[in-house]
Amino acid sequence: MKIVTWNVNSLKVRLPQVLEWLADNPDVTALCLQETKMEDVVFPKADIEAAGFHVVFAGQKTYNGVAIIARAALSDVVINIPGFIDHQVRLIAATMQGVRLVCAYIPNGQALDSEKYPYKLSWLAALTAFLKKEMVVYSKLALLGDYNIAPHDMDVHDPKKWEGQVLVSGPERAAFQALLDLGLTDSYRLFDQPEKTFSWWDYRGFGFRKNAGMRIDHILLTKELVPLCSACVIDKEPRRNERPSDHTPVIASLLI
DNA sequence: ATGGCATGTCGAACATGA
């Protein structure tokens, strides 16, 4: 199976691109979306099911919102982090063919002196506590999403320019490490990768053309899944579309 | 140092993203 994360930055705008991409990638089993930016009542469930997919989703107006589109059945759906009071819809989890898929849109944080920054860190702490419990139940678990964290300087086009800023700050990277310390592994770094490979590029200033990007979208795997992972790639093609999302899909292949 | 582009909001300037 292939499992994918893609921040689409509005599913209303990007639905045709999502369906086209799925048609072009028939071996993709599950696609986790972030920033759908729509309430459940207007979610295009019928369109997605008509195209032959299963789908689970949770959203809100204007901001956030997550969904999982899959070619196989999805069960045991959880929306948001249990016990963590949150007015924003940023997480959905479901089980597909024995694999627990956790789709997360981790807060951006805006800036280190913003009130959104401590929210980001508390959200990450709650996520880590939630996953610790999930991993007891589900040995085959993948955490897919927009983490809004570039784990290492090699994941940043210009580390000096970004030094100390949001997405790369020490506490954020420590929170990423805390996820790894649960026993999770960054599937992208299981394999040799080209230098300067990113999953997001700023719309402004020809960011994509200049490859001024960041690798902030990740797929972490439990120990049970690591030996089954045969590849992890970033698909830059959709970034060349007309009206692209600023993020591109990250794809992990699993021998399941 | 700032804004640059894109999206969504009840109808234009603003909030947010990363």
UniProtKB/TrEMBL annotation:
Q: How is the cofactor bound?
A: Probably binds two magnesium or manganese ions per subunit.
Residue sites binding Mg(2+) per the record = 7, 35, 146, 148, 246-247
> Hey, where's the site called Interaction with DNA substrate on this chain?
247
- Chain positions of site Transition state stabilizer: 148
Which keywords label this protein? Hydrolase, Magnesium, Manganese, Metal-binding
- Positions of the catalytic residues: 105, 146 (proton donor/acceptor), 247 (proton acceptor)
Report any one BP term from Gene Ontology: DNA repair
Pinpoint the site Important for catalytic activity.
217
Query: What range(s) does the Endonuclease/exonuclease/phosphatase domain occupy?
Result: 4-247
Q: Which cofactor does it need?
A: Mg(2+); Mn(2+)
Give one GO molecular function term: metal ion binding
Gene3D superfamilies (UniProt xref): Endonuclease/exonuclease/phosphatase (3.60.10.10)
| The UniProt record lists the keyword Hydrolase | yes
> What NCBIfam families is this protein classified in?
exoDNase_III, xth
**Protein family membership:** Belongs to the DNA repair enzymes AP/ExoA family.
What is the protein name given in its UniProt record? Exodeoxyribonuclease III
Q: Which gene encodes it?
A: xth
